[in-house]
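Notebook, p. 212. Picked up where the previous page left off. The plan for this session was modest: take the two constructs that came back from the sequencing core last week, fold each one, and keep the raw output in the notebook itself so nobody has to go hunting through shared drives later. Recording the first one now, exactly as returned: residue sequence, then the C-alpha coordinate string.
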Amino acid sequence: MVTVRTAPARGRPRRAESTDAILDAALAVLAERGYRAMTLDDVAARARASKPTMYRRWPTKVAIVAAAILHGLDRANPLAAHVRPASRDDAPAARLLRIVENVRSALVSTPLGGAIRAVISEVAHEPILADALRVVERSRRPILAGAVRALQEAGAFDARRDPDTVVDLLLGAIYFRVLVRQERPGPPFSREVVAVLLGDAVPR
Protein backbone atom coordinates (compact mmCIF):
# COMPACT_ATOMS: atom_id res chain seq x y z
CA MET A 1 0.00 0.00 0.00
CA VAL A 2 1.38 3.42 -0.97
CA THR A 3 0.82 6.34 1.38
CA VAL A 4 0.72 9.74 -0.32
CA ARG A 5 1.80 12.48 2.04
CA THR A 6 0.06 15.73 1.35
CA ALA A 7 0.68 19.26 2.56
CA PRO A 8 0.59 19.78 6.36
CA ALA A 9 -2.46 21.09 8.15
CA ARG A 10 -3.05 24.80 8.63
CA GLY A 11 -1.43 26.50 11.57
CA ARG A 12 2.15 25.72 10.49
CA PRO A 13 2.70 28.35 7.76
CA ARG A 14 6.48 28.10 7.51
CA ARG A 15 6.41 24.36 6.92
CA ALA A 16 3.44 24.75 4.57
CA GLU A 17 5.42 27.24 2.48
CA SER A 18 8.38 24.86 2.44
CA THR A 19 6.14 21.98 1.39
CA ASP A 20 4.62 24.04 -1.42
CA ALA A 21 8.07 25.04 -2.66
CA ILE A 22 9.31 21.45 -2.68
CA LEU A 23 6.25 20.04 -4.42
CA ASP A 24 6.21 22.89 -6.95
CA ALA A 25 9.85 22.14 -7.67
CA ALA A 26 9.10 18.43 -8.05
CA LEU A 27 6.38 19.16 -10.61
CA ALA A 28 8.68 21.46 -12.56
CA VAL A 29 11.62 19.05 -12.59
CA LEU A 30 9.37 16.13 -13.52
CA ALA A 31 7.80 18.08 -16.38
CA GLU A 32 11.18 19.29 -17.68
CA ARG A 33 13.34 16.17 -17.30
CA GLY A 34 10.93 13.27 -17.21
CA TYR A 35 10.43 10.61 -14.57
CA ARG A 36 13.59 8.58 -15.17
CA ALA A 37 15.96 11.54 -15.26
CA MET A 38 14.42 13.27 -12.24
CA THR A 39 16.27 12.90 -8.92
CA LEU A 40 15.42 14.00 -5.41
CA ASP A 41 18.67 15.96 -5.37
CA ASP A 42 17.40 17.93 -8.40
CA VAL A 43 14.21 18.76 -6.52
CA ALA A 44 16.03 19.81 -3.37
CA ALA A 45 18.30 22.10 -5.39
CA ARG A 46 15.38 23.67 -7.27
CA ALA A 47 13.44 24.25 -4.06
CA ARG A 48 16.54 25.30 -2.09
CA ALA A 49 15.42 22.79 0.52
CA SER A 50 17.30 20.76 3.06
CA LYS A 51 17.89 17.34 1.58
CA PRO A 52 17.67 15.49 4.94
CA THR A 53 14.31 17.13 5.66
CA MET A 54 13.00 16.32 2.22
CA TYR A 55 14.20 12.73 2.31
CA ARG A 56 12.52 12.19 5.68
CA ARG A 57 9.17 13.27 4.29
CA TRP A 58 9.49 11.69 0.85
CA PRO A 59 12.11 8.95 0.98
CA THR A 60 11.61 7.79 -2.61
CA LYS A 61 11.06 9.29 -6.02
CA VAL A 62 7.65 7.62 -6.24
CA ALA A 63 6.57 9.21 -2.96
CA ILE A 64 7.43 12.76 -3.99
CA VAL A 65 6.06 12.34 -7.52
CA ALA A 66 2.70 11.16 -6.19
CA ALA A 67 2.62 13.94 -3.60
CA ALA A 68 3.53 16.56 -6.22
CA ILE A 69 0.80 15.46 -8.62
CA LEU A 70 -1.73 15.44 -5.78
CA HIS A 71 -0.50 18.93 -4.86
CA GLY A 72 -1.03 20.16 -8.42
CA LEU A 73 -4.52 18.68 -8.58
CA ASP A 74 -5.43 20.13 -5.21
CA ARG A 75 -4.37 23.57 -6.36
CA ALA A 76 -6.69 23.22 -9.34
CA ASN A 77 -9.63 22.02 -7.24
CA PRO A 78 -8.98 22.17 -3.49
CA LEU A 79 -10.67 19.20 -1.86
CA ALA A 80 -11.68 21.29 1.16
CA ALA A 81 -13.73 23.57 -1.08
CA HIS A 82 -15.83 20.65 -2.31
CA VAL A 83 -16.54 18.63 0.81
CA ARG A 84 -18.93 21.32 2.04
CA PRO A 85 -22.47 21.49 0.61
CA ALA A 86 -22.74 23.82 -2.36
CA SER A 87 -24.23 27.24 -1.66
CA ARG A 88 -27.61 28.24 -3.01
CA ASP A 89 -25.92 30.43 -5.59
CA ASP A 90 -23.67 27.60 -6.77
CA ALA A 91 -25.84 25.86 -9.34
CA PRO A 92 -24.85 22.22 -9.92
CA ALA A 93 -24.21 22.77 -13.64
CA ALA A 94 -21.98 25.79 -12.97
CA ARG A 95 -20.11 23.86 -10.31
CA LEU A 96 -19.44 20.96 -12.68
CA LEU A 97 -18.22 23.30 -15.42
CA ARG A 98 -15.93 25.12 -12.99
CA ILE A 99 -14.31 21.87 -11.82
CA VAL A 100 -13.75 20.64 -15.39
CA GLU A 101 -12.36 24.01 -16.45
CA ASN A 102 -10.00 24.08 -13.47
CA VAL A 103 -8.59 20.72 -14.52
CA ARG A 104 -8.13 21.86 -18.13
CA SER A 105 -6.47 25.09 -17.05
CA ALA A 106 -4.04 23.33 -14.71
CA LEU A 107 -3.03 20.83 -17.37
CA VAL A 108 -2.27 23.44 -20.02
CA SER A 109 -0.95 26.36 -17.96
CA THR A 110 1.06 24.76 -15.13
CA PRO A 111 3.74 22.04 -14.94
CA LEU A 112 1.05 19.57 -13.89
CA GLY A 113 0.29 18.58 -17.49
CA GLY A 114 3.92 17.88 -18.30
CA ALA A 115 4.38 16.03 -15.02
CA ILE A 116 1.46 13.71 -15.67
CA ARG A 117 2.61 13.15 -19.24
CA ALA A 118 6.04 12.22 -17.89
CA VAL A 119 4.70 9.46 -15.64
CA ILE A 120 2.06 8.00 -17.97
CA SER A 121 4.60 6.12 -20.04
CA GLU A 122 6.29 4.74 -16.93
CA VAL A 123 3.38 3.19 -15.04
CA ALA A 124 3.42 -0.03 -17.10
CA HIS A 125 6.99 -0.66 -15.93
CA GLU A 126 6.74 0.77 -12.41
CA PRO A 127 4.03 -1.04 -10.40
CA ILE A 128 4.72 1.02 -7.27
CA LEU A 129 4.31 4.24 -9.24
CA ALA A 130 1.09 2.94 -10.78
CA ASP A 131 -0.23 2.08 -7.31
CA ALA A 132 0.65 5.55 -6.01
CA LEU A 133 -1.14 7.25 -8.89
CA ARG A 134 -4.22 5.13 -8.27
CA VAL A 135 -4.23 6.35 -4.68
CA VAL A 136 -4.03 9.94 -5.92
CA GLU A 137 -6.83 9.42 -8.44
CA ARG A 138 -9.15 7.82 -5.89
CA SER A 139 -8.59 10.70 -3.49
CA ARG A 140 -9.65 13.25 -6.13
CA ARG A 141 -12.55 11.40 -7.76
CA PRO A 142 -15.18 12.44 -5.15
CA ILE A 143 -14.93 16.08 -6.30
CA LEU A 144 -16.26 15.46 -9.82
CA ALA A 145 -18.43 12.50 -8.82
CA GLY A 146 -20.07 14.70 -6.17
CA ALA A 147 -20.80 17.38 -8.75
CA VAL A 148 -22.42 14.78 -11.03
CA ARG A 149 -24.55 13.47 -8.15
CA ALA A 150 -25.65 17.02 -7.35
CA LEU A 151 -26.89 17.34 -10.94
CA GLN A 152 -28.78 14.08 -10.60
CA GLU A 153 -30.35 15.14 -7.32
CA ALA A 154 -31.42 18.42 -8.92
CA GLY A 155 -33.08 16.52 -11.77
CA ALA A 156 -30.72 18.03 -14.33
CA PHE A 157 -29.12 14.73 -15.32
CA ASP A 158 -30.31 11.16 -15.69
CA ALA A 159 -30.15 9.55 -12.23
CA ARG A 160 -29.62 6.13 -13.83
CA ARG A 161 -26.16 7.10 -15.08
CA ASP A 162 -23.16 5.93 -13.08
CA PRO A 163 -21.29 9.01 -11.75
CA ASP A 164 -17.93 7.24 -11.96
CA THR A 165 -18.44 6.49 -15.64
CA VAL A 166 -19.43 10.11 -16.26
CA VAL A 167 -16.27 11.28 -14.49
CA ASP A 168 -14.18 9.00 -16.72
CA LEU A 169 -15.81 10.51 -19.81
CA LEU A 170 -15.35 14.11 -18.68
CA LEU A 171 -11.72 13.73 -17.65
CA GLY A 172 -10.93 11.34 -20.48
CA ALA A 173 -11.80 13.97 -23.09
CA ILE A 174 -9.50 16.54 -21.50
CA TYR A 175 -6.63 14.17 -20.80
CA PHE A 176 -6.77 12.77 -24.32
CA ARG A 177 -6.67 16.21 -25.92
CA VAL A 178 -3.88 17.52 -23.67
CA LEU A 179 -1.75 14.45 -22.95
CA VAL A 180 -2.19 12.29 -26.03
CA ARG A 181 -2.66 14.89 -28.77
CA GLN A 182 -0.46 17.32 -26.83
CA GLU A 183 -2.74 20.22 -27.69
CA ARG A 184 -3.58 23.23 -25.53
CA PRO A 185 -7.36 23.62 -25.69
CA GLY A 186 -8.84 26.81 -24.28
CA PRO A 187 -11.83 27.35 -21.97
CA PRO A 188 -14.38 26.73 -24.77
CA PHE A 189 -13.28 23.10 -24.83
CA SER A 190 -14.32 22.64 -21.19
CA ARG A 191 -17.74 24.08 -22.02
CA GLU A 192 -18.05 21.78 -25.02
CA VAL A 193 -17.15 18.73 -22.96
CA VAL A 194 -19.78 19.58 -20.35
CA ALA A 195 -22.30 20.43 -23.09
CA VAL A 196 -22.02 16.88 -24.41
CA LEU A 197 -23.32 15.82 -21.00
CA LEU A 198 -25.82 18.57 -20.26
CA GLY A 199 -26.88 19.81 -23.68
CA ASP A 200 -28.61 23.19 -23.51
CA ALA A 201 -28.34 23.18 -19.71
CA VAL A 202 -24.63 24.01 -19.84
CA PRO A 203 -24.10 27.40 -18.12
CA ARG A 204 -23.07 30.42 -20.16
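Okay, moving on. Second construct, recorded in the same format:
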Amino acid sequence: MMLAVDIGNTNIVLGVYRQRELLHHFRLSTARQSTVDEYGVLIHNMLGMSNISFKDVEGIIISSVVPPLVQVIVEMCTKYIGKEPLLVGPGIKTGLNLRYENPREVGADRIVNAVAAIEQYRCPLVVVDFGTATTFDCIDAGANYLGGAIVPGLGISTEALFQRASKLPRIELEKPKKVIGRNTVHAMQAGIIYGYAGQVEGIVRRIKQEMNAPSLKVIATGGLAPLIAGETDCIDEINPMLTLEGLRIIYDRNK
Protein backbone atom coordinates (compact mmCIF):
# COMPACT_ATOMS: atom_id res chain seq x y z
CA MET A 1 0.00 0.00 0.00
CA MET A 2 1.03 3.60 -0.59
CA LEU A 3 0.25 6.50 1.75
CA ALA A 4 -0.35 9.92 0.15
CA VAL A 5 -0.18 12.93 2.47
CA ASP A 6 -1.29 16.43 1.47
CA ILE A 7 -0.41 19.02 4.14
CA GLY A 8 -2.59 22.11 3.77
CA ASN A 9 -2.91 25.22 5.88
CA THR A 10 -6.24 24.10 7.36
CA ASN A 11 -6.31 20.30 6.94
CA ILE A 12 -4.01 17.38 6.31
CA VAL A 13 -5.57 14.89 3.89
CA LEU A 14 -4.31 11.32 3.73
CA GLY A 15 -5.09 8.66 1.15
CA VAL A 16 -4.24 4.95 1.18
CA TYR A 17 -3.75 3.39 -2.25
CA ARG A 18 -3.39 -0.16 -3.44
CA GLN A 19 -1.81 0.42 -6.85
CA ARG A 20 -4.27 2.77 -8.62
CA GLU A 21 -7.20 2.20 -6.23
CA LEU A 22 -7.92 4.65 -3.44
CA LEU A 23 -8.94 2.42 -0.53
CA HIS A 24 -9.45 4.99 2.23
CA HIS A 25 -9.00 8.69 2.80
CA PHE A 26 -8.87 10.75 5.99
CA ARG A 27 -8.87 14.43 6.93
CA LEU A 28 -7.40 15.91 10.10
CA SER A 29 -6.83 19.46 11.28
CA THR A 30 -3.42 20.98 10.59
CA ALA A 31 -1.81 21.51 13.99
CA ARG A 32 1.50 23.32 13.65
CA GLN A 33 2.42 22.73 17.30
CA SER A 34 1.87 18.96 17.29
CA THR A 35 4.94 16.78 17.72
CA VAL A 36 6.29 13.82 15.75
CA ASP A 37 4.90 11.45 18.38
CA GLU A 38 1.47 13.11 18.44
CA TYR A 39 1.12 12.79 14.67
CA GLY A 40 2.40 9.22 14.87
CA VAL A 41 -0.31 8.23 17.35
CA LEU A 42 -3.06 10.13 15.50
CA ILE A 43 -2.29 8.72 12.05
CA HIS A 44 -1.74 5.23 13.49
CA ASN A 45 -5.20 5.33 15.06
CA MET A 46 -6.87 6.72 11.93
CA LEU A 47 -5.39 3.99 9.75
CA GLY A 48 -6.25 1.41 12.40
CA MET A 49 -9.94 2.25 12.12
CA SER A 50 -9.73 0.88 8.56
CA ASN A 51 -7.69 -2.15 9.67
CA ILE A 52 -4.48 -0.76 8.16
CA SER A 53 -1.25 -0.89 10.13
CA PHE A 54 2.00 0.99 9.54
CA LYS A 55 3.67 -2.24 8.41
CA ASP A 56 1.20 -2.40 5.47
CA VAL A 57 2.59 0.88 4.08
CA GLU A 58 5.23 0.25 1.41
CA GLY A 59 5.77 3.83 0.27
CA ILE A 60 4.85 7.41 1.15
CA ILE A 61 4.58 10.66 -0.80
CA ILE A 62 4.07 14.09 0.75
CA SER A 63 3.08 17.48 -0.64
CA SER A 64 2.97 20.49 1.65
CA VAL A 65 2.27 24.22 1.69
CA VAL A 66 3.22 24.41 5.40
CA PRO A 67 7.06 24.27 5.53
CA PRO A 68 7.36 23.93 9.34
CA LEU A 69 5.34 20.71 9.28
CA VAL A 70 7.29 18.95 6.55
CA GLN A 71 10.14 17.80 8.77
CA VAL A 72 7.69 16.77 11.51
CA ILE A 73 5.75 14.48 9.15
CA VAL A 74 8.96 13.18 7.54
CA GLU A 75 10.34 12.23 10.96
CA MET A 76 7.03 10.63 11.87
CA CYS A 77 7.23 8.49 8.72
CA THR A 78 10.79 7.35 9.34
CA LYS A 79 10.29 6.77 13.09
CA TYR A 80 6.93 4.99 13.09
CA ILE A 81 6.47 3.63 9.57
CA GLY A 82 10.15 3.00 8.82
CA LYS A 83 9.93 4.56 5.35
CA GLU A 84 11.63 7.62 3.88
CA PRO A 85 8.87 9.61 2.15
CA LEU A 86 9.05 11.14 -1.31
CA LEU A 87 8.59 14.94 -1.20
CA VAL A 88 6.94 16.91 -3.98
CA GLY A 89 9.42 19.68 -4.76
CA PRO A 90 12.47 20.57 -6.84
CA GLY A 91 14.12 17.55 -8.40
CA ILE A 92 11.09 15.29 -8.39
CA LYS A 93 9.75 13.96 -11.69
CA THR A 94 6.23 15.26 -12.28
CA GLY A 95 5.99 15.23 -16.07
CA LEU A 96 4.57 18.76 -15.87
CA ASN A 97 5.85 21.40 -18.27
CA LEU A 98 5.95 24.59 -16.19
CA ARG A 99 5.76 27.89 -18.07
CA TYR A 100 5.93 29.88 -14.82
CA GLU A 101 8.54 32.65 -14.59
CA ASN A 102 10.09 30.97 -11.53
CA PRO A 103 8.96 27.32 -11.35
CA ARG A 104 10.24 27.00 -7.76
CA GLU A 105 7.52 29.44 -6.66
CA VAL A 106 4.67 27.15 -7.70
CA GLY A 107 3.10 25.53 -4.65
CA ALA A 108 3.25 21.75 -4.36
CA ASP A 109 -0.54 21.56 -4.17
CA ARG A 110 -0.90 23.42 -7.47
CA ILE A 111 1.61 21.13 -9.20
CA VAL A 112 -0.11 18.00 -7.89
CA ASN A 113 -3.56 19.23 -8.96
CA ALA A 114 -2.30 20.08 -12.45
CA VAL A 115 -0.67 16.67 -12.89
CA ALA A 116 -3.90 14.89 -11.94
CA ALA A 117 -6.09 17.11 -14.11
CA ILE A 118 -3.94 16.58 -17.21
CA GLU A 119 -4.05 12.82 -16.63
CA GLN A 120 -7.83 12.67 -16.16
CA TYR A 121 -9.26 15.37 -18.44
CA ARG A 122 -8.84 16.84 -21.89
CA CYS A 123 -6.83 20.06 -22.10
CA PRO A 124 -7.19 23.04 -22.06
CA LEU A 125 -8.57 23.29 -18.55
CA VAL A 126 -8.61 25.24 -15.30
CA VAL A 127 -8.37 23.73 -11.82
CA VAL A 128 -10.03 25.75 -9.06
CA ASP A 129 -8.94 24.56 -5.60
CA PHE A 130 -11.14 25.87 -2.78
CA GLY A 131 -8.87 25.70 0.24
CA THR A 132 -7.51 28.19 2.76
CA ALA A 133 -6.65 30.18 -0.36
CA THR A 134 -8.52 29.59 -3.61
CA THR A 135 -6.19 28.92 -6.53
CA PHE A 136 -6.91 28.96 -10.25
CA ASP A 137 -4.42 26.88 -12.28
CA CYS A 138 -4.43 27.11 -16.07
CA ILE A 139 -3.26 24.38 -18.46
CA ASP A 140 -3.26 25.03 -22.19
CA ALA A 141 -4.12 22.70 -25.06
CA GLY A 142 -0.53 21.44 -25.14
CA ALA A 143 -0.71 20.39 -21.46
CA ASN A 144 1.59 23.25 -20.41
CA TYR A 145 1.10 24.79 -16.97
CA LEU A 146 0.72 28.53 -17.57
CA GLY A 147 0.11 29.89 -14.07
CA GLY A 148 -3.10 31.30 -12.67
CA ALA A 149 -4.57 33.35 -9.86
CA ILE A 150 -4.66 33.17 -6.06
CA VAL A 151 -7.39 34.77 -3.95
CA PRO A 152 -8.29 34.64 -0.24
CA GLY A 153 -10.37 31.59 0.58
CA LEU A 154 -13.90 31.58 1.94
CA GLY A 155 -12.72 31.00 5.49
CA ILE A 156 -10.25 33.88 5.34
CA SER A 157 -12.92 36.20 3.96
CA THR A 158 -15.37 35.24 6.68
CA GLU A 159 -12.81 35.60 9.45
CA ALA A 160 -11.69 39.00 8.11
CA LEU A 161 -15.21 40.38 8.47
CA PHE A 162 -15.38 39.20 12.07
CA GLN A 163 -11.89 40.44 12.93
CA ARG A 164 -12.05 43.86 11.27
CA ALA A 165 -15.70 44.89 11.67
CA SER A 166 -16.52 45.41 15.34
CA LYS A 167 -20.25 44.67 15.22
CA LEU A 168 -20.20 41.69 12.86
CA PRO A 169 -20.29 38.18 14.39
CA ARG A 170 -18.35 35.07 13.45
CA ILE A 171 -20.62 32.96 11.22
CA GLU A 172 -20.88 29.49 9.78
CA LEU A 173 -20.25 29.04 6.05
CA GLU A 174 -23.76 28.08 5.00
CA LYS A 175 -25.82 29.06 1.97
CA PRO A 176 -28.72 31.37 2.90
CA LYS A 177 -32.10 30.93 1.26
CA LYS A 178 -32.06 34.39 -0.30
CA VAL A 179 -29.49 36.92 -1.42
CA ILE A 180 -31.36 39.64 0.48
CA GLY A 181 -30.59 38.82 4.09
CA ARG A 182 -33.21 39.80 6.67
CA ASN A 183 -30.72 39.60 9.56
CA THR A 184 -27.00 40.20 9.97
CA VAL A 185 -25.94 36.56 9.83
CA HIS A 186 -27.94 35.85 6.64
CA ALA A 187 -26.73 39.10 5.09
CA MET A 188 -23.10 38.11 5.73
CA GLN A 189 -23.66 34.60 4.41
CA ALA A 190 -25.32 35.95 1.28
CA GLY A 191 -22.50 38.39 0.62
CA ILE A 192 -19.78 35.81 1.14
CA ILE A 193 -21.35 32.84 -0.70
CA TYR A 194 -22.98 34.62 -3.63
CA GLY A 195 -20.24 37.22 -3.83
CA TYR A 196 -17.61 34.50 -3.95
CA ALA A 197 -19.52 32.65 -6.67
CA GLY A 198 -19.54 35.86 -8.70
CA GLN A 199 -15.80 36.26 -8.15
CA VAL A 200 -15.14 32.74 -9.42
CA GLU A 201 -17.31 33.35 -12.48
CA GLY A 202 -15.51 36.61 -13.23
CA ILE A 203 -12.01 35.11 -12.97
CA VAL A 204 -12.95 32.04 -15.04
CA ARG A 205 -14.48 34.26 -17.72
CA ARG A 206 -11.31 36.36 -17.94
CA ILE A 207 -9.12 33.23 -18.06
CA LYS A 208 -11.14 31.87 -20.98
CA GLN A 209 -10.77 35.17 -22.80
CA GLU A 210 -7.02 35.40 -22.13
CA MET A 211 -6.41 31.80 -23.19
CA ASN A 212 -8.76 32.19 -26.18
CA ALA A 213 -10.44 28.97 -25.07
CA PRO A 214 -14.17 29.56 -24.54
CA SER A 215 -14.87 25.83 -24.12
CA LEU A 216 -12.09 24.92 -21.70
CA LYS A 217 -13.09 22.59 -18.86
CA VAL A 218 -13.25 23.91 -15.29
CA ILE A 219 -12.53 21.38 -12.53
CA ALA A 220 -13.18 22.22 -8.87
CA THR A 221 -11.56 20.53 -5.89
CA GLY A 222 -10.99 21.28 -2.21
CA GLY A 223 -13.23 20.99 0.82
CA LEU A 224 -15.38 24.02 0.02
CA ALA A 225 -15.87 23.27 -3.68
CA PRO A 226 -19.44 21.87 -3.34
CA LEU A 227 -20.60 24.99 -1.52
CA ILE A 228 -19.66 27.32 -4.37
CA ALA A 229 -20.10 24.97 -7.33
CA GLY A 230 -23.82 24.75 -6.61
CA GLU A 231 -24.17 28.52 -7.04
CA THR A 232 -22.46 28.92 -10.39
CA ASP A 233 -22.67 27.30 -13.81
CA CYS A 234 -19.02 27.96 -14.70
CA ILE A 235 -17.74 24.81 -12.94
CA ASP A 236 -18.03 21.67 -15.05
CA GLU A 237 -17.04 19.02 -12.50
CA ILE A 238 -16.15 18.58 -8.84
CA ASN A 239 -13.32 16.15 -8.12
CA PRO A 240 -12.68 16.01 -4.35
CA MET A 241 -9.88 13.44 -4.72
CA LEU A 242 -7.91 15.34 -7.37
CA THR A 243 -4.93 16.16 -5.12
CA LEU A 244 -4.61 12.61 -3.82
CA GLU A 245 -4.76 11.30 -7.39
CA GLY A 246 -1.99 13.69 -8.39
CA LEU A 247 0.16 12.40 -5.54
CA ARG A 248 -0.41 8.83 -6.66
CA ILE A 249 0.56 9.66 -10.24
CA ILE A 250 3.74 11.46 -9.18
CA TYR A 251 4.63 8.59 -6.83
CA ASP A 252 4.30 6.09 -9.70
CA ARG A 253 6.50 8.27 -11.93
CA ASN A 254 9.26 8.32 -9.31
CA LYS A 255 9.25 4.71 -8.13
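Notes on construct two before I forget. The CA atoms of residues 25 and 68 lie 23 Å apart.
Flagging for discussion at group meeting.
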